[in-house]
Amino acid sequence: GGLRIGALVRNTDLAADLRVRRDYAVLSRALLAGASGQLRNRATTAGNLLQRTRCPYFYDTHQPCNKRQPGSGCAAMQGFSRQLAVVGASDACIATHPSDMAVAMRLLDAVVETVTPQGQERLIPIAEFYRPPGDTPHLETTLAPGEFITAVTLPPPVGGTQIYRKVRDRASYAFALVSVAAIVQPDGTGRVALGGVAHQPWRREAADAQVPHGAQAVYDALFADAQPTPENAFKLV
What we know:
This protein is α+β, with helices and mostly antiparallel strands.
């Protein structure tokens, strides 16, 4: 069967850790690539999924940011954008989602379990969990006000060769410039998800279908609608 991970489970949970290492290697590798050992041992599953953007203009309250103050503008458009989105962005926001764990969860087709303020349980496929930025980048997920995450469920293991690679400015405690999560099966089929390039873990069915045809075909499908800035165009090389 699959694996249900509680929202407050930490990396120090030995039983969950052993199961993830054995059956969901791409998730284990993504978790180890995140932050530092100290932070990993304090982070929770729900908190990781709900990380806010790491755009520098989101933090600088002297600069306009549509995520922080809707309608104020996006300073990143004409500013420092080296780490920001090259695909899936909008005229209102080019921020990226920072989580490594979420990229692996997207690859594995995880399902987010929630409870609404009215006490109703809801299951949200992670493919539907993050909102596109559009004109409302301050609305980052499909959670309703007051709704909270109770667990994340992973489907039964799919096997295959599982890979997570993260390119960053330093070896630890740095967010991805680009990360790649992939599962390749013995028959050549597979699936791919990216981090560091969009507002959410970036996965496309068209790209998964191209895995048997090689890396260039997968790349073309993933970045078909890319709109990089001059500072982050290197992510497409």
